[in-house]
Amino acid sequence: MKFKEFLKKKDIEISLKRYGIDALGAMAQGLFCSLLIGTIIDTIGSSFHIPFLTNTVATIAGTDYTVGGLAKAMSGPAMAVAIGSALKCPPLVLFSMITVGFASNALGGAGGPLAVLIVAIIAAEFGKAVSKETKIDILVTPLVTIGIGILLSALIAKPIGDAASWLGNVIMWATELQPFLMGILVSVIVGIALTLPISSAAICAALQLTGLAGGAAVAGCCAQMIGFAVISFKENKWGGLVSQGIGTSMLQMGNIVKNPRIWIAPILASAVTGPIATCFFKLRMDGAPISSGMGTCGLVGQIGVYTGWVNDVAAGTKNAITAFDWIGLIMISFVLPALLSLLFHAGVKKLGWVKEGDMKLKT
Residues 294, 358: contact at Cβ < 8 Å? Predict the structure, then answer.
């Protein structure tokens, strides 16, 4: 059998879409269902003083875990299984990904999510390649998948994690040093990534993007989601407002392909809200890094910012959550994206670049 025919038989598709879109997007979902949910549970517990959520429920190898802590501890396996699902792994490969995810995330350190992405993809494809090729599949497939995964984790997880962490630190350092310029760049780039069929949340998680840079990322994502929601309100009504404003601006991708100029207003809005967030409101996202790339999706970005405030107050690095903090979060997340996008969109329409119906969502 020819190599290409073998790959097709095993559903191994070596492509940017499969790895850079499907797997990356799934990784973000895995992070959401573990690290992010765990962080939200911990924040709710500490904010409302709920004993069941703040007390230790398990002690493993000398480490105490709360309910949220247990969820966060499973982020590596959750990411790897999500990636395996996106790559259409057979059951034995998929279940083996739990071990692969744990190993690659643990050895990847701060940049663990990127290490998980790369190691999990390779291990999954090798596992798929040998799946059901022998009469002792129940032994061979897990051995190959886990063996490849742990070997790669030992060899490359730490360098990959260190590289991702280094790049994230450079971005955050540059944002602290040049908040205006970097506020624009981070806001625009992460905002665009949010609307493209890739995962801005996974990118922010892989780079561990927090602090002022995380605040700029939140601003850019909100500008895209709220921006598209309000400028397309005439065409999509309340359903479109909710699905884009609290769901995802990715819904407009088909329309963007047809007329890229509909993207001008949200991008310009993000270029304005980014530096306002970093320079004026000094908005920081010190919660889970994945929250930096979520925008208003389920209000995860806003919950992440609030979680950061709570953590900073508890750590003594912030005195209290002030009215100015809340005003800044509301302005950057909702008010400014809506007003600026409407303003820029009016100009684009006046130029004749966008017409009625260009942003109508398919039902």
Answer: no
Low-confidence ranges of the chain (pLDDT < 50): none
What are 240-249's contacts with CB under 8 Å, separation 24+? 240/361, 243/361, 244/361, 245/296, 246/296, 246/297, 246/298, 246/299, 247/297, 248/194, 248/297, 249/194, 249/195, 249/224, 249/225, 249/295
Give me the amino acid identity at 21: I
> What's the sign of the alpha-carbon dihedral 215, 218, 222, 223?
positive
Do the domain assignments include residue 189? yes
As given in the structure block, the two tokens for residue 121 are 């993809």
Question: Residue 18: CA atoms inside 13 Å, Cβ hemisphere, count?
Answer: 14
The amino acid that residue 298 corresponds to is: G
In the chain, the amino acid numbered 360 is K
| pLDDT for position 363 | 64
At residue 216, the pLDDT reads 97
- Final residue before a domain boundary, out of 125, 159, 193: 159
Closest CA to 36 of 178, 201, 189: 201
Q: Which helix (H) or strand (E) holds 53?
A: helix 51-54
Amino acid at position 156, single letter? I
Full-model pTM:
0.83
Same domain, 316 and 184: yes
Number of domains comprising the chain? 2
Is 155 contained in some domain? yes
What confidence tens digit (pLDDT) does each residue in 134-148 have?
999 999 999 999 999
Using DSSP, state whether 65 is helix, strand or coil: strand
The two tokens of residue 139 are 């032994």
Amino acid, res. 5 = E
Q: Are residues 231 and 110 in the same domain?
A: no
List residues bridging with 211 in a β-sheet. 285
Which of 159, 186, 215 delimits the end of a domain?
Answer: 159
